[in-house]
Amino acid sequence: MIKKLRVTVDGKSYDVTVEMSDEDFALGLPHPAAPIAPTNAPAPVAPPPATSSPAVPAATPAGTGDVTSPLAGKVASIDVQAGQEVAQGQQVLTLEAMKMNTYIYAPKAGRIAAVHVHPGDAVDEGARLMSIA
Fold first, then answer.
1. Are residue 61 and residue 42 in the same domain, yes or no?
2. Radius of gyration of the chain from Cα atoms?
3. Do 125 and 64 share a structural domain?
4. What is the domain range of residue 5?
5. What DSSP designation does 44 have?
């Protein structure tokens, strides 16, 4: 027997179609002919999973020489060192978010004045990653 259900996951509702067999009813699942009282209570939402690395907040507003994170993610690699000269557009860092890598490039030519993160750090969108003098 086919039954239409609405499932809510992380606050988002999905309409699904489920095929139930006679075996399902033998296991104690309600028969689709049996009315089910609707509830107006929201579905419980699980807390977000804890991360092993603390988030690195954007402690101060970004300056003109700061390289900031375009999205929240995890620092996969740092491709330059403090004191190193970089060209505008040179890759300086790699972020991982949702199993995809995002390459971060130097917004201007200069010398890396400071690197504010480490590989494995979780960063928020807008967080300062490094400074270029």
1. no
2. 25
3. yes
4. 1-46
5. P
Q: Would you say residue 46 has pLDDT above 70? A: no
Cβ partners under 8 Å of residue 121, min gap 6: 53, 54, 56, 74, 75
Total domain count, the chain: 2
Same domain? For 23 and 76 the reply is no
Q: CB under 8 Å to 26, separation ≥6 — which residues? A: none
Contact 105, 85 (CB under 8 A): no
Which two tokens mark 113? 């004045």
| Region of poorest pLDDT, from 14-23, 74-83, 86-95, 114-123 | 14-23
Query: For residue 124, what are the contacts with CB-CB under 8 A and spacing of at least 6?
Result: 55, 56, 57, 58, 69, 72
Per-residue model confidence as pLDDT tens digits over 79-106: 999 999 999 999 999 999 999 999 999 9
